[in-house]
């Protein structure tokens, strides 16, 4: 299972941003990435994240992260939810299917894919609140995944779970348009969290100052809680549906 995918996304974004500004900031990029991971991951996950060291190679577009620690949120046992001595990351923009076609972790042992893609804004259909999240695909392959997510939300985050884009007849067909689908089409239960479509959707104007960080953190906490529940169950969830 891909534990703490949100953390992985934040790490990759921090590295990608550093590479993007490299021509303007030729030095101290390692420290920039380290601070970005610690600051944004802590804010988004709602629990303290620390990094010992980052070594970034711009020429090879890769990074080494050492001594990554994610503290357990309040209410969970143990000091840490996740610890890693060394993480090697290679950015490969030409291979969007890299994880599912050449997995680092065997697909046969992968319980589920939790996809968080655009979770920091509100859409035009929810102008008065950001206390919601669109849930897509949770019931396509596993009825248990759908139930566990609803239970985790009721217990921890109490977001409005909107299933508009999970409708098989929805014309946007968003279920087929994000990274989780590369796993779903291989029979791995997948769930996609999405904030919906707004005026800046897929435009350069979708800038960081428009992110609602309270919503981003709460939605990330739901993804974390779901991952925690899935990882700590005595048995893996069953695939009992055909994916349609």
What does this structure look like?
This protein is of the alpha/beta class and 244 residues long. The protein has 2 domains: 1-94; 99-244, Aminopeptidase (3-Layer(aba) Sandwich). Helices cover 31% and strands 18% of the residues. It is built from 6 helices and 8 strands; from the N terminus they run H-H-E-E-E-E-H-E-E-H-E-H-E-H. It has helices at 5-20, 29-45, 98-101, 143-157, 181-184, 213-231; strands spanning 49-50, 53-57, 62-71, 80-90, 113-116, 132-136, 160-162, 190-194. Strands 1, 2, 3 and 4 form a 4-stranded antiparallel beta sheet that branches. A 4-stranded mixed beta sheet has the order 5-8-6-7. The radius of gyration is 18 Å and the shape is globular. Residues 15-27 have low confidence and may be disordered.
The CATH homologous superfamily of the largest domain is termed Zn peptidases
CATH topology name of the largest domain, in short, is Aminopeptidase
Count of DSSP-assigned helices:
6
What are the low-pLDDT stretches, counting only 5+ consecutive residues below 50?
A: 15-27
What's the total count of β strands? 8
Determine the structural class based on helices, strands and strand pairing.
alpha/beta
What fraction strand? 15-25%
**Mind summarizing the main beta sheet?**
4 strands, antiparallel
CATH architecture of the largest domain: 3-Layer(aba) Sandwich
Distance N to C terminus? 22 Å
Top CATH class of the largest domain: Alpha Beta
Helix % is 25-40%
SSE succession: HHEEEEHEEHEHEH
Domain count: 2
So what's the overall shape? globular
Overall pLDDT confidence: 81
Radius of gyration: 18 Å
